[in-house]
Amino acid sequence: MRDEPETWPVHESRDVWRGPAPFAVRNDLVSVPGRDERFWRLVVEHPGAAVVLAVDDDERALVLRQYRHPPGMRFAELPAGLLDAGEDPLVAARRELLEEGALEASEWRHLNTMYTSPGINSERIEIFLARGLSDAPDRGGFELEHEEADMTAEWVPVDELVSGVLDRRLTDGPLALAVLTYDLLRNRARLD
Length: 192
Prior knowledge:
It contains three helices and ten strands. It is α+β, with helices and mostly antiparallel strands.
């Protein structure tokens, strides 16, 4: 079983919003292949993102607490950020760990890939495990501002994060997928 690429005919596409943000919204007139019926589908264009589960030698993960305006919540999250145009997701993951966590890692492993809401959004998130952590001398010149300036960081045992996800106390999707994937792999002895 696997997801498969497929493209349906788009007969017309209209920009709803396109501006300086790395996102855009368009409306596509689509049809099922071989059928005459046409229908509109709203699409949020997204550049994609990279997420980092940074785990230290004591099986603790770096967790950021950050306010997110759309849902009106302060979430426990992992270091993450948008991809620049054409950027390799691992390069973005390294950058985000440096900028948000002030850390570097000597070991990297791709953990998982997720689409956040494929019915409306093209956002694809690549999730990485970072090990062999060391403090970075600076954040690579990155300055925390806006919500990030209020962000806090802490080290949390991975088992506590798994329990938080299973108990529905931790609800950030990328964090949940990252820690559950990591926990499943380490319990199956598939992490070398």
